[in-house]
Design goal:
Elements: H1 3-8, H2 16-28, H3 31-47, H4 54-70, H5 72-80, H6 88-116, H7 125-199, H8 203-220, E1 228-230, H9 231-249, E2 253-259, E3 267-269, H10 274-285, E4 292-301, E5 304-311, H11 323-337, E6 342-346, E7 353-360
Parallel strand pairs: 2-4
Antiparallel strand pairs: 1-3, 4-5, 5-7, 6-7
Helix pairs in contact: 3-4, 4-6, 5-6, 5-7, 6-7, 7-8, 7-11, 8-9, 10-11
Length: about 375
């Protein structure tokens, strides 16, 4: 027997112990009509004002119990010969034979029980087969339909779980690739700024930036960094990064924080704000001769978290494009949150550039 055939004989995702419980449950379901049959025989005797014979009660109940025991044939044939597009003629022939076998077995046990109880003579065997056939065929194919419905449901659930696992693995790989894209970009820009300080022979500022850069890279390049971190942790990292930028720009960089206390516990993608702040400094503050203002905002709006990075620079031209940082952030939010993650790029009333991130408001469960 091949592995595929063995798999076809077993409900996907269900072990043999569970399979035994399933067909036992199918067989036990005949207890209900057995009890109803006994009750019907008893009530019929009462309506006809005659005593209920125990032989009649035993026969009515025993008939259904025999059927319940024989229905295991349907279950096993249903698992052994599933009705598929391929080889369906063989499966159909097997089930027609199974239905006839169920009919013969049920009729034989009924006649035998009637003979023991002196209720039906053995000579009525053929008549009893013809009487039992409609119910036998009906019950066989009804149970067969239930077996296939359960099988298809289990297979669909298994396919759904498999697709979910594949989607999670794909998202994990995509997020890892996006993060690896950010790290060299961040490192290159930081080293470029350090080179400017060295060429300007600003030794004190260069030494300070090296210390800060070491701390920032130690956290940014951690291999076990989760994809989501509390906003409070993200803000601490951002403060370290802005300390490096303060070495470059001194008093030309003014940072204003507006953080909702509720938002600090919200989960956000790791390093989601750093590329936006880097863009704001590069395209806003760095292009001004005077001091530039940088606003970092976090607030909870309904069931969503909104993060905004705003500068008062010259703004971004239409031909400038999004660049690595913004397109990377947009792709990360789409991958992690689907339609619930959005990036909006606009111009605030006072001029400059504003980037707003919108994502579901979620906190880490204890």
């Amino acid at each position: 027997m091949t592995a595929i055939e063995a798999r076809q004989q077993q409900v996907p995702g269900v072990d043999r112990a569970t399979e035994r419980r399933i067909w036992l449950l199918i067989s036990a379901a005949c207890i209900v009509p057995a009890v109803l049959g006994v009750l019907q025989a008893y009530m019929q005797a009462q309506l006809e004002r005659r005593p209920a014979r125990w032989e009649d009660l035993v026969f009515e109940g025993g008939e259904w119990l025999f059927l319940g025991a024989l229905l295991s044939i349907t279950y096993h044939l249903g698992r052994r010969f599933p009705l598929r597009r391929t080889r369906w003629t063989r499966a159909l022939a097997a089930h027609v034979a199974g239905a006839l076998g169920l009919c013969l077995g049920w009729a034989s046990l009924g006649v035998l029980l009637g003979h023991v109880l002196n209720r039906y003579p053995a000579g009525n065997y053929l008549s009893w087969i013809l009487t039992s056939m409609p119910w036998s065929v009906f019950m066989y194919f009804t149970v067969l339909g239930c077996v296939h419905a359960f099988s298809y449901f289990t297979e669909a659930r298994e396919r759904e779980a498999h697709a979910s696992r594949l989607a999670a693995q794909l998202a994990e790989a995509r997020l890892g690739a996006l993060r690896m894209q950010l790290n060299p970009h961040f490192l290159f820009n930081s080293l470029n700024a350090l080179a400017v300080l060295v060429r300007g022979q600003n030794t004190a500022a260069a030494s300070r930036m090296l210390e800060l850069l070491g701390d920032v890279l130690h956290q940014a390049l951690r291999p076990d960094q989760p994809h989501e971190v509390p906003l409070a942790e993200e803000l601490r990292f951002l403060e370290q990064y802005l300390a490096i930028e303060h070495v470059r720009f001194s008093d030309r960089l003014r940072v204003h924080w507006s953080i909702d206390d509720r938002a600090r516990a919200a989960l956000v993608p790791g390093f989601v704000l750093q590329p936006l702040v880097e863009n704001a400094i590069k395209h806003g503050v760095a292009k001004r001769a005077a001091a530039g203002r940088l606003d970092i905002v976090a607030r909870v709006v309904g069931h969503h978290l909104e993060l905004a990075v705003r500068d008062d620079g010259v703004g971004m031209s239409a031909s400038q494009g999004e660049g690595v940082g913004l397109s990377n952030t947009r792709e990360r939010l789409r991958t992690m949150y689907g339609d619930d993650g959005a990036v909006t790029l606009g111009t605030p009333p006072g001029g400059g550039t504003e980037v707003v991130l919108r994502m579901p408001f979620r906190v880490r469960t204890p």
